[in-house]
Amino acid sequence: MKKKLLTAALLLGVFGYTNAQEIKTVPQHSANVGLTPIKEGNWMIGGSVGNLGYNFESDAFNIALNPRAGYFIADGLALGAQATLGVGAAKNEKTEWSYGIAPFVRYYIPRGASATGRFFGQGDVGIAGGSQGKGTAFAFGVNAGYAHFITQTVALEAMAGYNYTKANVNLGDKATGLGVSLGFQIYLPGKSR
Could you report how far apart the first and last alpha carbons of the chain are, in Å? Predict the structure, then answer.
């Protein structure tokens, strides 16, 4: 009888202890990274998953994907290349497909930074074209953004800026406009100094 009571008490105690050990997992939404991801020698890959813009020249709306890759030549300064693959539409016109490629320079601003995020400026100069045009032409963009690090190597980004192309895209003979994009970057460690 004593063995049965002792066994029952032991099982009750183990059952109560295991139920008391509730493990809560919370999705990670930020990481304290400091300067680690943007150190000299690191790589970044990713891009904008959506680039929304309005063209002042032809009252056209467009959306594009911008994959990009870059290399940090100094702490906070990256050089790289990006592509543009997009589609645009205007009133009473055909849908137009656009494309482009451009080298870019991106600088992460040290002032105003937090342990989980960085402001940056990005400029690019390249070529662009479209399905309605003939060939390719000069294009450039000036953008500012913020990168919020959700892990040590992944950041979500928001970017806004001015973009111009001399190409016959967006159903006009040139395109200028403001754009907003949301995207992500993966920061890969490079050689150690």
Answer: 71
